[in-house]
Design goal:
4 strands, SH3BGR, Thioredoxin-like_sf, alpha+beta, Glut_rich_SH3-bd, membrane, about 120 residues
Length: about 120
């Protein structure tokens, strides 16, 4: 399974740049494998996210804002959903991945199973 983050390499929006850097930095720091796809430099990438981000996950403008994140071709969410998962120690589950043993997320999942 390949996690793909769709970014824009040239954006006038500091908010979008900050969100992209935050997401990519977290994935790199936690050694989570991912592919970075540029929608500014590649029309195919831009077309692909327009076709694959669900209608109900798009802003009023209709075009998805970077950085949407996918696992293979499955849409996993936008920056806000990623941030919420990170705050809840649930990034692996958010991405559709198995948390590695010893991680905070794996420990939290084990505790939930004990209390279920």
């Amino acid at each position: 399974m390949v996690v793909r983050v769709y970014i824009v390499s040239s954006s006038g929006s500091t908010a979008i740049k900050k969100k992209q850097q935050d997401m990519l930095g977290f994935l790199e720091a936690n050694k989570m494998g991912f592919e970075e796809k540029d929608i500014a430099a590649n029309e195919e990438n831009r077309k692909w996210i327009r076709e694959n981000v669900p209608e109900n996950s798009r802003p009023a403008t209709g075009y998805p804002l970077p950085p949407p994140i996918f696992n293979e071709s499955q849409y996993r969410g936008d920056y806000d959903a990623f941030f919420e998962a990170r705050e809840n120690n649930a990034v692996y589950a958010f991405l559709g991945l198995t948390a590695p043993p010893g991680s905070k997320e794996a420990e939290a999942q084990a505790k939930q199973k004990l209390h279920a």
